[in-house]
Recover the amino acids of this structure.
């Protein structure tokens, strides 16, 4: 059953720059779906459109059959999501645990229970107690990513969105975070939509992959089929990504 | 031939558009000050930032304003043998004009810039988007506490500035200008009217509102990147200062205009 449906979504910005040009896509319940594409192809815009942060020009986005344009059910619509931002977006005036409590507090008004939930989630993502009272600027990028994930899952979402989850991390920490995301998705049984340009992340996390090019989904399928899918852009993208990985080795 | 007219029209429309945006933002921000949920911890924090931490600079400005005013008034009024009116001029000028305007301008420089920079950085680092995804209205969490703090704390700062400014005038008059302590104090009390202080406090609350709204507005709509945040900070200070001067004239005309 489809959890998220993008139906002919268009978005352009001032100056006529067409970023999304009729995106249509269906993501199933409990599926881990990846959107791959080059930098600047509109991946982040698509994610922000899904969250309603950016308003679409035309088309429709449905989540559990609730339309993003349905203002009556906008709260119900938004409640389904949680996102792990590319730059983590932790509130830098709050400590790590306060960040997670702040998230948990939006679904549970009991302070002591929120603290308990926050500690539980922070431990679940592998953070030690000694960093709970640190500020985001005082801990490493990998730890910040874990803390942001803890905050994201503390609000018990039905859909988790990951925006370039390994960007800015070294390959080892990136690998650890990927494992953590996979374990989180497995344990929570939620629908996940990840946007990335890293094909290795896609191979590791995805059930299915969609490739976005020039504001349109040009191919959807499994990562192992990318090389021989018949779409020139997708095949080139796969080849170029692998060439970089092989060179790095 | 029509090019200058077209340019003028373009700038007029852009200015009107900006005024419209600020007005809508202000109405939305003020409305959210009265609608729960209220983030009391954030409100208290902003009260400290706007009020307590601005005290030293506002106090310093007020004391020197009072001292200079006493000196200049004395020098000017000696020409008309009216030096006895120094105490009255100092107290009326400080409570009606200098206290509120100087305190407002200092808060504009210190607080409006910091609000714009903080909210602008939150915009750049996607923290405002994060608030939305955590189902928190950024107007309630970021804008309303700053408006409440501005409206409550700038009058408090002005009250302190009034006292310190008058004390500055008193200090110069009694130590350098040979005024007797008793007559200076009695003249000050005799000539200070409730409307002088009240009009100053009303002005202060309005300036507090303007400073917080301009700071929040420019931060909220800051362009991305370091330059964007820098521009937002500059715009916040400039528009707050201009706003204070324009509002000061309008409120003076309202209170004391014939």
């Amino acid at each position: 059953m489809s959890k998220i449906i993008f139906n002919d979504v268009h978005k352009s910005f001032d100056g006529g720059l067409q970023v999304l040009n009729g995106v249509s896509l269906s993501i199933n319940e409990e599926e881990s779906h990846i959107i791959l594409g080059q930098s600047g192809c509109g991946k982040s815009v698509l994610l922000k459109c899904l969250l309603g942060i950016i308003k679409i020009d035309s088309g429709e986005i449905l989540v559990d059959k609730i339309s993003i344009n349905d203002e009556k059910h906008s709260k119900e619509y938004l409640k389904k999501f949680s996102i792990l931002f590319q730059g983590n977006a932790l509130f830098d005036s709050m400590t790590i645990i306060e960040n997670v409590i702040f998230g948990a507090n939006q679904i549970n008004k009991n302070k002591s229970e929120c603290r308990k939930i926050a500690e539980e989630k922070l431990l679940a993502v592998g953070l030690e107690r000694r960093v709970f009272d640190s500020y985001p600027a005082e801990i490493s990028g990998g730890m910040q990513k874990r803390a942001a994930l803890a905050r994201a899952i503390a609000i018990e979402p039905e859909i988790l969105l990951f925006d370039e989850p390994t960007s800015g991390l070294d390959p080892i920490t990136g690998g650890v975070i990927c494992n953590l995301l996979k374990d989180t998705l497995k344990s929570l049984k939620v629908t996940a939509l990840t946007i990335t340009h890293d094909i290795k992340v896609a191979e590791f996390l995805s059930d299915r992959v969609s490739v976005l090019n020039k504001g349109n989904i040009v191919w959807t399928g499994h990562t192992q089929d990318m090389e021989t899918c018949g779409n020139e852009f997708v095949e080139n993208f796969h080849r170029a990504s692998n060439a970089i990985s092989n060179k790095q080795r | 031939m029509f090019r200058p007219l077209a340019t003028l029209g373009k700038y007029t429309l852009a200015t009107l558009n900006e005024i419209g945006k600020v007005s809508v933002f202000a109405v939305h921000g003020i409305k959210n000050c009265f609608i729960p949920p209220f983030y009391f911890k954030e409100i208290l924090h902003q009260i400290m930032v706007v009020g307590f931490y601005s005290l030293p600079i506002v106090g310093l400005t007020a004391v020197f304003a009072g001292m200079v005013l006493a000196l200049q008034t004395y020098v000017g009024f000696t020409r008309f043998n009216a030096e006895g009116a120094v105490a009255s001029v100092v107290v009326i000028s400080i409570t009606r004009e200098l206290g509120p305007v100087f305190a407002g301008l200092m808060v504009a420089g210190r607080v409006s810039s910091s609000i714009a920079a903080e909210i602008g950085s939150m915009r750049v680092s996607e923290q405002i988007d994060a608030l939305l995804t955590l189902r928190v209205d950024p107007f309630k969490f970021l804008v309303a506490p700053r408006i409440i703090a501005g409206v409550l704390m700038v009058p408090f700062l002005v009250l302190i500035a009034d006292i310190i400014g008058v004390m500055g005038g008193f200090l110069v008059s009694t130590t350098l200008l040979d005024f007797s302590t008793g007559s200076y104090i009695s003249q000050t009390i005799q000539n200070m009217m409730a409307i002088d202080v009240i009009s100053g406090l009303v002005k202060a609350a309005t300036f507090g509102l303007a400073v917080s709204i301009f700071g929040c507005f420019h931060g909220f709509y800051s362009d991305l990147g370091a330059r964007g945040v820098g521009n937002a900070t500059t715009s916040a200070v400039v528009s707050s200062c201009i706003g204070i001067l324009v509002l000061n004239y309008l409120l003076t005309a309202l209170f004391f205009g014939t």
Q: What stands out?
A: Chain B has a mean pLDDT of 94. Chain B touches chain A at residues 122, 125-127, 129-130, 132-136 (CB under 8 Å).
